[in-house]
Specification:
It is a single chain. By secondary structure, the protein is α/β, with parallel strands linked by helices. It folds into two domains: 7-85 and 188-246, Rossmann fold; 87-184, Hypothetical Protein, Haloacid Dehalogenase-like Hydrolase, Chain: A, domain 2 (2-Layer Sandwich). It is built from nine helices and eleven strands. The two termini are 12 Å apart. Pathway: Nucleotide-sugar biosynthesis; GDP-alpha-D-mannose biosynthesis; alpha-D-mannose 1-phosphate from D-fructose 6-phosphate: step 2/2. It is found in: Cytoplasm.
Length: 247
Amino acid sequence: MPATKRTLALFDVDGTLTPARLKITPEMKAFLQELRKTISIGVVGGSDFVKQQEQIGSDSLSNFDYSFAENGLVAYKNDELIAKASFAQKIGEEELQKLINWVLAYLSKITLPIKRGTFIEFRTGMLNISPIGRNCARDERNAFEEYDLKNNIRKDMVAAMQKEFAHLNLTFSIGGQISFDVFPAGWDKTYCLQFVDRSLFDEVHFFGDKTFEGGNDYEIFTHPDVKGHSVTSPDDTKAQCTELFLS
């Protein structure tokens, strides 16, 4: 089917439109605007809206047809806020504090090559948990990712939390280099799809780099109503989109 405005492409941010936690390049930004002349485009990331704009630009709402932060818990269509949901309200303050206290206790018992600060980031729709701490520098972030791959720091912590908090029906999603997200079941990236008017589109595509099971792109990548595409970098995203939509 030829690409038209009735085709919607949704993009992850880290590793898909930008290198992890870095800003979008002018070249990628220009490419997306060229792509938008042919199809409709949207962004769906796990970070909060402020961080999303830091990476893809303060003008992001005018550059995408849909902007979904925190997996769609904060949802915009063009520049209009159309939905917002709260993790704290969903599970309640008592359970939230139990969760936070458990995380702090767990992290106090593990030793890493280095630890920095901001181990828990409270977002509108989730908790983001980082064993090394989100205040780490770029080289420290890269070193932790390599260490984590060999020692399963995040995977082991997720497994322990799944056992401890089974009664809350939470989802644990490993994404990026240093952290994982915790949110109610169903609040993964497929959450954003409810805000896409399917009568407007013949096809919905998704591009992401964490499409493996347990990655934060997996659920939307495998959703039956979505054509999923696994990418390895922003350049790969550009190449695949060119072949699919601009050839």
